[in-house]
Amino acid sequence: MTPLVISLTTIPPRFAQLPRVIAGLRAQTACPARILLTIPRQYRRFPGSYALPKLEGVEVLRPERDPGPIGKVSEAVHFLRGRPCHLLYCDDDWLYGPGWAQGFLDTARTHPGAVIATSTFNVRRLGLTGGDGARIAQGFGGVIIDPNWLGTSALTPPASAWAVDDIWLSAQYARTGRTIIEASHLRRQVQPLADPDRLQDAVVKGENRADANRKMAHHLAAEYGIWGR
Length: 229
Prior knowledge:
single chain; alpha/beta; Spore Coat Polysaccharide Biosynthesis Protein SpsA, Chain A; seven-stranded mixed β-sheet; two-stranded antiparallel ribbon; globular
């Protein structure tokens, strides 16, 4: 049986709620072989040093620099390179019900080779024509992939993509012909927690998240010839 690995990253304002999140991941009916948590040694948005949260059943990955939200994918893929597994990545400000991971595995089994996400939206929202209903996979409710689908270039986005990981990763899937499937029935398995200092509200280099998403989507659509370009 192909092992399941769950991966996430976190920021200091959310350290206190991590034990609840991790407890929910450890209690999945589809028990993960490992849970990977990325905590960079230096944060871009939170200067200074921080004591690591005390957690059980988690392997902590410590990149020197802050990869941003893509760290929940990039550091895990580097760590798992060449190992057969399912990689289920998610966010640190949601609780995941006990059937969440199994639901992903069941859906992935019926859609081999596809990216499965709890929540998606059509690229038309970003002002693109969308081709054949092309979609953006949103990481907050979970996304399951084979980590070996992502090469080194896909894991090292330019600085302009630092805050828009969903757009960047979805473009990497699209450019290699991966279909993104929405498993909306899994939304009942996820429950939001407090979301302090959320990147969605941040202004990075003068751009809010919506503008950054749109700008990056149009750039990648033109560069890769995807999403109706």
